[in-house]
Specification:
- Helix content is about 5%, strand content about 35%.
- The protein is mainly beta.
- The protein contains 2 helices and 8 strands.
- Strand 1 and strand 2 form a beta hairpin.
- The protein folds into 2 domains: about 5-65 and about 130-160, Roll (Chitinase A, domain 3); about 70-125, Thrombin, subunit H.
- Mean pLDDT is about 90; it is low at about 160-175.
């Protein structure tokens, strides 16, 4: 079966920056819905017409993926507003920011705690790959028709590089996929 809109594709990949540094590896196949919300449009376009076994490589510029780095999404907040066990790398939903945080901090963003100082905490609302051109080498491990439920949800339940809040988890168990 060839890849087309409204089908599910199982992928493995290696993601690198333009200097060749490996940013993410997906060794076990994960299923994504094409024509939904799982993959970036540039990736969906590159996969069209391919079948299981195909290797597809592409370079994705920031404007095709996670945008340019926006320094207006960096916020320096009082340390006293946050729990004592706060850790660097923790993701915090904007809607869950403590009272007293900067009023201009968008509440629909996810923030990563990038630095913790005795008096301040640095929150970054940029996607971790914002401003970075990436090279993606994917292997198509399988293709199947999407179920009505998947089409209705617009997803197989796996988003492409969506960072989910860790809610108290340690920073090293969050992934980019």
């Amino acid at each position: 079966m060839e890849i087309s809109q409204q089908c599910v594709v199982a992928l493995t990949w290696t993601l690198k920056d333009t200097l060749g540094e490996v940013l993410d590896v997906l060794d076990e196949p994960v299923e994504f819905l094409l024509g939904g919300n799982d993959l970036l449009p540039v990736i969906e376009a590159a996969l069209q017409g391919h079948a299981a076994g195909a290797v597809v490589s592409l370079q994705i510029e920031p404007e095709q993926a996670f945008g340019d780095f926006n320094d207006q999404l960096i916020f320096l907040e009082p340390r006293a507003l946050f729990p004592a066990d706060l850790q660097e790398g923790l993701c915090i939903e904007g809607a869950a920011l403590p009272d007293g945080c900067h009023p201009d901090a968008p509440r629909n963003a996810l923030y990563v705690v990038t630095d913790i100082y005795p008096e301040h905490v640095v929150l970054d609302g940029n996607h971790p790959l914002a401003g970075i051109a990436i090279r993606l080498s994917m292997t198509v491990r399988g293709v199947r028709e999407a179920t009505e439920e998947e089409i209705g949800q617009g997803s197989t339940g796996t988003g492409f590089f969506r960072i989910q809040p860790l809610h108290g988890a340690t920073p090293d168990n969050g992934t980019l996929h």
